[in-house]
Amino acid sequence: MVDQDRISLWNLERFTFRCMKFMVPCLDGKHYEHELNLEDYDPDSGYMVEGNEDILSIRYENGRIWMTSFQETFEDWCAWRFSGHQDMESHGYRGRVLGNAGKENFAGYLAQRYGQGIHSRTEIYRIVERLGVEEWVRLVDCRIREREADGSFQADMNRFIREEFFPMETRRVLELTFERVDGTVACAEDMLRYAISQVQLHLDEYKCVGILI
After folding, report:
1. 137, 180 contact by CB (below 8 A)
2. How many other CB atoms sit within 10 Å of the CB of residue 12?
3. Which of 32, 145, 172, 207 is the most buried (most CB within 10 A)?
4. CB neighbours (10 Å) of residue 54?
């Protein structure tokens, strides 16, 4: 099944945990306090416990998440890990998890801070450099064309952006040529599409396409 109009968040991991200790009830003799010791997990990540009908309350305290329940023991309670690392595995997926955090440079700062468009070839190179895709593809040329070449890649990763005043079919074409980094097979085409899609956000008068060599 394909879910439409959803944005995937690749830094989330859902995991289950169980009661690992012999529990003593609280002073009232009815409730039990279970803990999820975050020292047993990645200390640089954030964590949330998923509520269920057995959990009465959840709180964070001194590196632990405490859950109050009538249950003395439990299995398969769920929690979520929010990771900033790119080596996380989730739901049986063993591939590398890629992020979209960009590098900081002056051209990117101006474009983001003041809404400046692209006015030179150098600015295009700096925008692409800021994306951090050089491990997979390298921008080697850019040119203006009257029409796009057959087999060009489209800037189609930001479909939520509406074309307000300048429909793509009326624009001249800005063709960005990328070179595949030696030995890189996986993700090269996706990184190219990501790069030209981000460049397209700064262009009102051109349609951005990509060529991979």
Report:
1. yes
2. 14
3. 207
4. 12
For the beta sheet containing 64-69, the strands, ordered from the edge strand earlier in sequence to the opposite edge, are 32-37, 64-69, 55-61
What is the per-residue burial (b if ≥16 Cβ within 10 Å, else e) of 170-190? Answer: eeebbbbbbebeeeeeebbbe
Instruction: List pLDDT tens digits, range 189-210.
Output: 999 999 999 999 888 789 999 9
Same domain, 182 and 120: yes
Q: Is residue 141 a part of any domain in this protein?
A: yes
Number of separate domains in the chain:
2
Mark whether 115 and 201 lie in a shared domain.
Answer: yes
Q: Check: pTM over 0.70? Answer yes or no.
A: no
Distances (CA, A) of 189 to 26, 61, 138, 154, 202: 58, 45, 12, 11, 21
Give the position of tokens 């929010």. 82
Domain membership flag for residue 25: yes
Residue closest to 47 by CA, chosen among 24, 15, 25, 9: 15
Q: Given the DSSP bridges, would you call strands 206-212 and 172-180 parallel, antiparallel or unpaired?
A: parallel
Residues 46 and 130 in one domain: no
> 4: helix, coil or strand?
coil
pLDDT digits (tens, 9 = 90+) for 37-68: 988 887 778 899 999 999 999 999 988 999 99
Indicate whether 70 and 164 sit together in one domain. no
- The residue range of the domain holding 159 is 106-212
- DSSP letters, 79-132, are EEEE---S---BTTB-SPPP--PPPP-HHHHHHHHH-----SHHHHHHHHHHHT
